[in-house]
Write a structure and sequence with these properties.
By secondary structure, the chain is of the alpha+beta class. The chain contains two helices and six strands; from the N terminus they run H-E-E-E-E-E-E-H. The protein has one domain. 16% of the residues lie in helices and 43% in strands. The longest helix is centred in the first third of the chain and has 12 residues. 28% of the residues are buried. The model has no long low-confidence stretch (mean pLDDT 91).
Length: 107
């Protein structure tokens, strides 16, 4: 059974909603793109962080372990897509939902 955080991020992908949360004691503003599990079986999301706090420059791709997310909320707002896709993502190895495959191709 997926966690409540997983369900929130999954629904945000389906409805193209932004998510705000706390991760590693930093406030993040994200657009989640891919959700599932990593090779260790942990719930993870690949998201484009477009604003908030970061240890590096923004915007950038983030691989987040959902167990470490606090105070997640979805909200309306402009959908942000990441930059270059020159390399294959390795964050989510068991993909349940990918916005580019499962959501947008249905339209």
């Amino acid at each position: 059974m997926p966690s409540a955080t997983y369900a929130l991020f999954r629904e945000a992908i389906l409805s193209e909603r932004q998510v705000t949360c706390s991760y590693d004691e930093r406030t993040r503003e994200l657009c989640p793109h891919i959700i599932g599990r990593n090779r260790n079986g942990e719930e993870v999301v690949l998201a484009w962080q477009f604003a908030g706090q970061s240890s590096g420059p923004l915007p950038q791709w983030r691989c987040l372990r959902l167990a470490n997310i606090r105070d997640a909320r979805s909200r309306e707002g402009r959908w942000h897509e990441g930059g270059s896709h020159r390399t294959e993502q390795t964050c989510v190895t068991d993909i349940e939902l990918d916005i580019n495959i499962d959501v947008r191709k249905r339209r």
